[in-house]
Amino acid sequence: MASPVPSDLASAHLTAISRLLEGKRVAVVSGAGMSTDSGIPDYRGPDSPPRNPMTYQQFVGDDEFRRHYWARNHVGWRHMDAARPNEGHRALAALERRGIVSGIITQNVDMLHTKAGSKRVIDLHGVYARVRCLDCQQLVSRFTLARRLDARNPGFLDSVAPAEGVEIAPDADAIITDTAHFHMVDCERCGGILKPDIVYFGESVPKPRVAQAFDLVDSSDALLVVGSSLTVMSGLRFVRRAAKAAMPIVVVNRGPTRGDEFASITTHAGCSETLAALVDELPPLH
Question: Which of 37, 129, 153, 189 is the most exposed place for a label (fewest CB within 10 A)?
Fold first, then answer.
């Protein structure tokens, strides 16, 4: 296991990371810690409250639970939609333009990498901005659904605290309790159950998406993990893939991760300051 790099990011430590990555095409795996500087809390950071994310089985198996979730999401998605990329997102986009970052596999659903200008982004767990019918598979935008829900629930948003005053989870779920007066709508095409186009706990990432992510890792020379504890296998498997290929692996996270044992270098630091510093350290890839 690599020794963690202290969070003060001394120049010698940055030099070690940059030397490890210099001249290489770097695949990136990003997690919720990447977006905390954009106002979106993470699941498992050192200062995060305990969370019990919804499971797929709860969503599809309980009408009341599903209604309660959609009421909370109707508030939470607006907060996520208003979030803007931070310095770390912009740094990764800049490194991609230089030919250093080969692509990003993100566990986040907030689309902030795309908003920052990154071009090759694999949204491993889906995105908050789409909704899928579980019966006919039709996709609609979250904005379109919001207009239908507003019409079905006049005054609901005014009846709860504004999004700015409500705690928002990383999956766009607002932490509110009074949802009994909320009414859900079904698919306009077939009347089926609508679900955010997000991979829930207990649900598998689509195989083609996983294959695309593995291809990105396999075509790269190094792996950089930023803001993920790698607690779930959906992210850890890419670290294991890179380790099996003897690729250099750098892990940047504010706490320990399940991938530390595979890392060449680990740094317990914030993503924004670390990635911004790497932009200054790494020359363009020719």
Answer: 189
pTM greater than 0.85 (yes/no): yes
Query: How far separated are the first and last CA of the chain, in Å rounded?
Result: 32
Q: Which of 234, 249, 231 shows the shortest CA–CA distance to 199? A: 234
Which H or E element spans position 132?
strand 126-133
What would the pLDDT profile of 33-47 be if each residue is shown by its tens digit?
999 999 998 755 445
Instruction: State how far the Cα of 121 lies from the Cα of 135, in Å rounded to an integer.
Output: 27
- Residues belonging to the active site: 125
Tell me whether strands 121-123 and 265-267 are parallel, antiparallel or unpaired. Answer: unpaired
Write the single-letter amino acid at 147.
R
Q: How confident is the model at residue 7 (pLDDT cuts 50, 70, 90)?
A: very low
